[in-house]
Amino acid sequence: MRGRVMIILPRFCFRATELAMADIWFYHLTSLPLERALPTLLSKTLEREKRAVVMTGNEQRIDAINTLLWTYDPASWLPHGSKSDGDPEMQPVWLTTDDENPNGAQFLFLTDRAMSDKVADYERVIMLFDDRDHDAVAEARTRWKDWKDAGHKLSYWQQSPQGAWEKKAES
């Protein structure tokens, strides 16, 4: 090859999961409890034609959320299931204590200080934490720092006294 310079560049290979970053939204429950906030947020998720995993700390909480999603509104209900129902691929909302996504959800809801090592696998992660639980608030601050350092896009939402959500910060 006379008169030409050939430059050979090393090949860089990245797996899609290494580059994936989730939008992580912190929802600080200051006026209404989880039982009032979660059904509304899940309804909005389904309106956007997205699927959700709701991860919680224990089986008793799954039972309580299961009952809540059937009864929170006398005129409505949210379609959902859990391990006891089976058929996760048929469930638009999946309730679990495990770090799993058996229904192919795009959104992950973390309640009761549940922790996932797979946040990057989701389009959006919604972490709900109660202002009355000081340990949960401290843990949310730690997770904000850790997830920010990992490169995720973060938003912090706080309830107004009337229960409306106000974005207070983003990173």
Based on the model shown, name its key terms:
4 helices; 27% helix; 171 residues; globular; alpha/beta; 8 strands
Detailed description of the structure:
There is one protein chain. With 171 residues, the protein is α/β, with parallel strands linked by helices. Helix content is 27%, strand content 24%. It contains 4 helices and 8 strands; from the N terminus they run αβαβαββββαββ. The protein has an 8-stranded mixed beta sheet, sandwiched between helices. β7 and β8 (165-170) form a beta hairpin. The longest helix is centred in the C-terminal third of the chain and has 16 residues, at 134-149. It starts with 15 loop residues before the first helix and ends with a strand. The model is unreliable at 5-18 (pLDDT under 50).
Shape: globular
In terms of structural class, how would the helical and strand content be classed?
A: alpha/beta
Unreliable parts? 5-18
How many DSSP-defined strands?
Answer: 8
Helix fraction, binned, reads 25-40%
Number of helices: 4
> Which strand-content bin applies to the residues?
15-25%
Q: Measured on Cα atoms, how large is the radius of gyration?
A: 20 Å
Q: N- to C-terminal separation?
A: 51 Å
Neighbour order of strands in the largest sheet: 3-4-2-5-6-1-7-8
Biggest pleated-sheet summary:
8 strands, mixed
Rounded mean pLDDT score: 89
Order of helices and strands: HEHEHEEEEHEE
